[in-house]
Amino acid sequence: MEGDSVTLHTNLTEIQNDDTILWMFGPKDSVVSQITRKAGLTSFFVTDDERFRGRLRVDQKTGSLTIRNTRIRHSGKYKLSVSREQTTIKIFNVTVFGDVGKMDEVKSVSVMEGESVTLQTDAEIHSDDLIVWRFGDKGILLAKIDVETKEISLNDDDERFRGRLQLNQTGSLTIKKTKTENTGFYELQIRGRESSQRFLLSVTGPWLSPGLIAGIVVAILLVAAVLAAVVIYYRRKISILEKKRLKRNPVKEGGSVRLHTAAKIQEGDL
């Protein structure tokens, strides 16, 4: 797996005089290491190819080759050539898988739906680290960064996260505009140092979103304004009718007024 070390053995007990040990890689047999022993003196060479920089170790007694802190790019064919009285060739096929190891502590993080959240790594990042983020019980790959090459890859195939993931150089993962379906376990693995963290993210949807609350407030204000307008209208209507009634029967102060009855008075009425 990525971050592990692998040793390719020569099966020699000791390099002898006049031996030449040659390690080659890839379809073009590019030389990555060479050891030559002549008259008790040993010459030693290790490639400065960026793909292997700082990762190759050669046992100067046996000639075995170790690749430390592996990456997927180190997958391929390795050829060993041992020259003594005759030359023998041995082929090694190395496959490095992108996977993560065991997980440690769990940190709980809560956020409201629609907000952004950043899952922070507490580990100190080294220049040759490989940082991997996975999601859920199935360990779906979300994001990966090779700090050495600054190469970042994000999962845009999963609709739950499409276009909303961001991974920075510190290894922290940001999820923008979170959804309730983003709830679950998130795993951070720093390969090569067996450092890991685990997060439990809870995304909750409010019963009333801020937009819905604002809409309700506006509706209440509109209803109150309509009721106020109705009350004012009827008050004015009543006031106008009262004024019209007074105009029909004007009476000056101190004057007399006759109130007419429409009924016919009969004999015997009081």
Automatic annotation (TrEMBL):
<keyword id="KW-0472">Membrane</keyword>
<feature type="transmembrane region" description="Helical">
    <location>
        <begin position="207"/>
        <end position="234"/>
    </location>
</feature>
<dbReference type="InterPro" id="IPR036179">
    <property type="entry name" value="Ig-like_dom_sf"/>
</dbReference>
<dbReference type="InterPro" id="IPR003599">
    <property type="entry name" value="Ig_sub"/>
</dbReference>
<dbReference type="InterPro" id="IPR013783">
    <property type="entry name" value="Ig-like_fold"/>
</dbReference>
<dbReference type="InterPro" id="IPR013106">
    <property type="entry name" value="Ig_V-set"/>
</dbReference>
<keyword id="KW-1133">Transmembrane helix</keyword>
<protein>
    <submittedName>
        <fullName>Uncharacterized protein LOC113099153</fullName>
    </submittedName>
</protein>
<feature type="domain" description="Immunoglobulin">
    <location>
        <begin position="106"/>
        <end position="204"/>
    </location>
</feature>
<dbReference type="Pfam" id="PF07686">
    <property type="entry name" value="V-set"/>
</dbReference>
<keyword id="KW-0812">Transmembrane</keyword>
<feature type="domain" description="Immunoglobulin">
    <location>
        <begin position="1"/>
        <end position="97"/>
    </location>
</feature>
